[in-house]
Design a protein that fits this description.
This protein has two domains: 19-112, Phosphorylase Kinase, domain 1 (2-Layer Sandwich); 119-322, Aminoglycoside phosphotransferase (APH), C-terminal lobe (Aminoglycoside 3'-phosphotransferase, Chain: A, domain 2), CATH 3.90.1200.10. The chain is α+β, with helices and mostly antiparallel strands and 327 residues long. Mean pLDDT is 93; it is low at 4-14. 46% of the residues are buried. The strands form three sheets. It has a five-stranded antiparallel β-sheet, with helices on one face. It is globular, with a radius of gyration of 20 Å. Strand 1 and strand 2 form a beta hairpin. The protein has eleven helices and nine strands.
Length: 327
């Protein structure tokens, strides 16, 4: 997951190009000269912006991603084959930078570089959120009934999978999470059944790039089927959107008039933090990253308690429980 809300410092960006990334560049553009700079972010990958300086494609900018090895990636719910299938399914939708190469033997993904901004650097936040809502609406509408299933993409089965993995390996770590799973079950029952589209399933501020006319989604490591409203609520929580900003996001998504949609989106703030906290506990058992996983999980747990204590949370759940179920 993103770790987007954690108060701890992210791991530092690498200062040198990993050998696998250099090999990927040599394979794709043999003989070309290039310059590179590390990009910030990435909890399960390392990213470099590379500009080709010679050859037929001189001036082209790409992002080269060194990915977490498959053995460790699977521990936290990442399936590279599923990621590839998701990228293939959305290739024609214009929602993510074009994929230039997926080099499984090197563990490297290469995509075009998009010159854009994160939400924190956008002047017109309402306009940007409307564009993001439109991007998510297009993704979900065009992939309804997807056959691409991720381990953790569904907000209910995926979150339960994470809990069970941590509970089996280190049961003491999830002792404080028991009540959260009861709340998850209540949200799932209130939400009801749905035909699952493809979700990005990690829509954090760092995974959305805004240009003048669209919002691009990047880093599809956790993609797979799930409830469409989770992507919306996940971003609303991770970006700490206020009520008016949530309304702008849902308006762009095209369902602002339905109070049940707003209620579902707001309830998914809780699920967003639950998944983040459990992911962090699971990641902490692997030793692959120098990060305060336990501290971040405690932060997520405190945020869940805050959300659950809000009168509006109970009202939203009650609305979903008594009204006709959303499609």
């Amino acid at each position: 997951m993103s770790g987007a809300n954690q108060p701890f410092e992210r791991p530092g960006s690498p200062s040198t190009m990993p050998p696998t990334v250099e090999l990927a560049l040599q394979r794709l553009w043999p003989g070309a000269a290039w310059s590179s700079e590390p990009l910030e972010g990435g909890m399960t990958n390392r990213n470099f912006k590379v500009v080709l300086e010679s050859g037929p494609e001189a001036g082209r900018a790409v992002v080269v991603q060194e990915q977490l090895p498959d053995a460790l990636a699977g521990v936290v719910g990442i399936q590279r084959r599923t990621q590839s299938l998701a990228l293939e399914e959305i290739a024609s939708l214009g929602l993510t930078p074009p994929v230039l190469a997926q080099l499984a033997d090197l563990g490297v993904l290469v995509v075009d570089f998009v010159d854009g901004s994160l939400l924190s650097d956008v002047a017109d936040r309402a306009g940007a959120l409307t564009m993001l809502g439109q991007t998510l609406a297009r993704l979900h509408a065009q992939t309804r009934g997807t056959s691409v299933h991720g381990l953790v993409s569904d907000p209910f089965s995926g979150t339960t999978w994470l809990f069970e993995q941590v509970d089996r390996e280190s049961p003491e770590l999830v002792e404080d999470f028991g009540w959260t799973m009861h709340t998850l079950h209540r949200i799932g029952t209130a939400r009801g059944s749905y035909v699952a589209p493809l979700l990005h399933a990690d829509v954090s501020e760092g995974n959305v790039v805004f240009t003048a006319d669209r919002a691009f989604l990047i880093d599809w490591e956790y993609a797979g089927s799930g409830d469409r409203f989770f992507d919306v609520g996940d971003f609303a929580e991770k970006a700490k959107l206020g009520p008016e900003e949530v309304a702008a996001l849902v308006s762009g998504y095209g369902e602002a008039a339905d109070e049940r949609v707003l209620a579902a989106v707001r309830c998914y703030r809780f699920v967003s933090m639950l998944r983040e906290g459990l992911w962090s506990l699971r990641a902490g058992t692997t030793g692959f990253l120098d990060f305060d996983h336990a501290g971040y999980a405690r932060t997520c747990l405190a945020r869940m308690a805050e959300i659950a204590s809000e009168a509006s949370f109970e009202s939203d759940l009650a609305l979903l429980e008594r009204e006709e179920k959303l499609p």
